[in-house]
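To assess whether the prediction recovers the assembly geometry, we first specified each molecular entity separately, as shown.
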Amino acid sequence: MIQNKEQWLEEASKKIKVPKELIEKAFHDELNGNPSIDAPLEVPDIMDITYKYTYGGISRFFREIRDNKQLYGTKCTHCGKVWLPPRINCNECYAPTKWVKLGSTAKIITYTIVYYATSVFYGKTPYVCAFVKVEGSDTLIMQNVFLEDVKKARVGMKLKIQFKEYRNGDMGDFWFVPAGEDLQHE
Amino acid sequence: MNKVGIVGVGTTAFKARWIEKTYYELAYDAAKLALEDAGIDKKDVGGVVYGIYNEFFERQFMPDVYIHNYIGMGLKPSVRVATGGATGGAAVFVGWTWIASGLYDIVMVLGVEKATDNYNYAVGHPTPETLKAILFSGDMTFENPMGLTAAASYALPMIAHIDKYGTPTEKQMAMVSVKNHKNAINNPIAQSPKLLTVDDVLNSKMITYPFKFYDNCLYSEGASAIILASEKVAKSLSDNPAWITGVGLSLDKAFAGERDDITIFTSSLYAGNDAYKMAGIKNPIKELDFAELHDAFTGAEILSYEAFNFCKPGDGGKLIEDGVVEMGGSLPVNPSGGLIGCGHAVGATGVMQTGEAALQVQGRAEKRQVKNARVGLVQSIGGPATAWTAAMIVERQDKIRVQRGKGTKGQGVKGARMKRTKGKGSKGARVQQARGKR
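The predicted structure of the complete assembly is given in tokenized form:
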């Protein structure tokens, strides 16, 4: 039996970064019941790692988005294919690529509407994930498309890029909206 | 290459949560069942290939090393395979190479997965946390931040396919769900045996367009093991072993936006063609007697009919409408219930499916037995937008046909069954059921 319920909750909450009342609810039987000594015993736990991750050779892609609100791809110096997501070499030619400015319009090639998401995306459902072809690129990039009505998403829909006001230098800094729309999504 | 037989099969129940077992305890149960089914001792095993998908599910990196220890295989060769949803199938593929190369005579392939020790305290349910654990499999820079779930990953090629061909329709997908839930009723280890109507599926809540609740498989926990053996050993252990006569493994571009064609399951097409070629199968719809396909989502099963050349692209939905893939049809798909009916204990799933195929061709599949099952196809899909496929052809090659379903002479492993462990480990009676022939 848990000897000091309050202390146990305090320590668990600190360890897994979850409010005490939620932990109490999840462990109600263990805390308040009298389970047999052989009953399965569950414990609160978390796996948590912090990073200082490097974008390596494609750092410029994220700096251009963050600092200049500009989308860049990379063009193979051998075959001329334009990559987005960018890469500093071509996996077909094994040749280096160079940075090229891309347009601000795009088209949906395929999409889906997510109604049930992970805990990270709670409160954002339903949302559209799409493979879009950005003007000037030969490959597709995955991005969110924001629509007033998600059910209006269609293959072939024409889009334009929008940037977040305060940008962090990651893929969340931009998204797409229908080309004709003035609405700024935030 | 040497011939590779399947001489033992063991699978625990697939269920939403095995609260009473850890991952290595589940692995032990499956290992024990498979060894008993083969009638061999763990000492006879040359090496073990583990299929375990997700470190966050197990709450453990390198979980295979602890299983290897726990099941008493210390110092034997071992390797872990992790290929997303295709983990189990790819583990079988690797185990196959160990025998086919002549390196070992007996290899155990053991798949296991926990999934619902993850827990989201805010909603009081594991699923959001399980989805989050999977999301780490999407490219962390370009895909993970977009909120791509496993269902969304399948939905992207699906919508592209529907846009191009107009199929599969929501009704055709619902029919697959009805079929697989129904087939699971005959499977004692299944998680979701259910009699549903097409309307039940169509009216269930939208999860990820176009997949509704009953179009999805559920997360399962469980373990499955098979024993592979060289020809000589297989024949000495069984009068009627199953043989893996073809294998294929393909990994498509994980950044699916680079693919030439996103409307089809290209890795399944490639893995399937390799497996067919090796097994000498030219006309799958005629030559295959059944298939265990990776129906993580109903539409995926239909696109797989097309990728495996059961029909032309766009025509997959007709196979379910015409009853071809139903039990009693000319090519039953997922007699076990598949991932939707039996469950999806990721690392264990492909091993379970391969074991199912072995039971089918040996005439040991009990109530879910397909009549005259000689040749079956197994598919295991994983990775972003169905990037990975492992495919296997499992068949029987005996000259004396077994009288199926009667447990008569000619059945290799008398009385042995794909047994269900009920959380208390195998009972002595069950141990005695399995043959002890060496």
